[in-house]
Amino acid sequence: MDYKVKIEQFEGPLDLLLYLIKKDEINIYDIPIAKITQQYLDYIRVLELLNLELAGEFLVMASTLMRIKARMLLPSQGDEIEEEDDPRRELIQQLLEYQKFKEAAGRLETMEYQRRLLFVRPDTQDGESVIEVEYAYNLFELIAAFKKVLEKAQVRYLEIRPEEISLEEKIEMLKTRIDSAAVLSFEDLFEPGATRIDLIVTFLALLEILRLGFAVVRQTRSFGEIWIHRRTADEGDVGPGERDGEN
Amino acid sequence: MEEVKRIVEALLFACPDPLSVERIVAIVPGVEWDQVIAATAALRDDYAQETRSFQLVEVGGGYQLTTKPDYSVWVDKLLETASKARLSRAALETLAVVAYKQPVLRSAIEAVRGVNVDGVLRTLMERNLVRIVGRGEGPGRPLLFGTTKDFLMQFGINRLSDLPKVEEIDELVGEKPGVPLVPPPEPPSQEYAGHGETQ
User: Fold this and answer.
1) Of the candidates B8, B43, B125, B172, which lies 20 to 30 Å from B103 by C-alpha distance?
2) Is the CB of A8 less than 8 angstroms away from the CB of B119?
3) pLDDT in tens, B51-80
């Protein structure tokens, strides 16, 4: 496959782990390592399937998890191993530390948002070129939803099609659809009976559209249904959803 | 007193950037530090009245007049502010680590975030939110990073010590009850406060 989508602001392995922990309401101090490792690897597999440029850190974490898992299985043999010498200890500490800063980042975001509502005179804040566009969505949520789509579409016989739609074409098609519909549910993006490669291209097209800022993703609640909204011309950032109190 | 208040008001009105007390004292002959502070306090109270659409805020180590948030919709229309580029999550997280831990090495930021932060740091520096503040000890004398005055201004912070306390953040996170296996990690250092000056 010759496409490669690069997502620079890809949240790291710690973010993925935290996501999995929250999703299953797991006690962070007592992580079921085998289960989490399995889920983590599942996600990595989807990421690889999408041919996303996977940061090396994700694989390092995968091996860390497997190492911890192995150590948990081993009966603690040996002399100086103490009660406190939980193989998960270091990871937990890292997760807690990371979580703290993730939260701090959220606070900063709010502060910046509030400050943006204040204007000074004379206003000379022009010319700031757009360097980076926000991803107003959580990538992992999207991947989780995409996993569901993939599972639903489960294995059928290999279809051979004379031509596949290119990513560029798909992006244009999706843009048109989002444009005319204004709001689409995530699952509606994927045509029933589409081939696996179709699904993947569609998903990649969606990521690209979001990156370019043509649409935004909204969710009425965490892990709830995902909606794709057309971004209106003057809508700079993601305000609260129109109908639903979003989190 | 009334006169000082009006002078301060005129200065604030004319100045787009935060104006520090030092600056005002230097400009107005014979005026005392606490007179200025009293004047700004009085002005703040005046503006807080509902009859006013602007207010006095303390940001980046100085005072500044801004419109009140209730009127942002209209001012936005006037200025036709292009949809502003907001910081990505990765950028915000990196910025948070820098803000709380500064002066901080890149390796320390990476240890927290678990990913390479080269690109994000560059972006933050391009946006003038983060700067190099010095070099650390050790082989290669690695660079130390800190936040800029622009960071304070863009986030509506007066000084670094005004950043939300990490304990508050911990409360927000709502840690699951239960006996912790490990002691909570030590809070990021807040000691590097008061270095607002850029460049």
Assistant:
1) B172
2) yes
3) 899 999 999 989 999 999 999 888 888 876
Higher pLDDT: B44 or A219? It is B44
Strand order in the sheet with A215-219: A183-185, A226-230, A215-219
Chain B closest-CA separation from residue A128 CA (Å)? 9
User: CA-to-CA distance for B18 and B65, rounded, in angstroms?
Assistant: 8
Tell me: do A88 and A157 sit in the same domain. no
Nearest CA in chain B to A133: B85
Q: In chain B, which residues fall in CATH 1.10.10.10?
A: 2-79, 89-173
What is the predicted pLDDT for the residue at A164? Answer: 67
Q: pLDDT at position B147, please?
A: 94
So what's the pLDDT on residue A229? 81
Residue B181: closest C-alpha in chain A: A29
Query: Quick check: A107 and B16 CB within 8 A?
Result: no
**Element spanning B102, H or E:** none
What class has domain B89-173? Answer: mainly alpha
Bond preceding residue A87 cis, omega within 30 of 0 = no
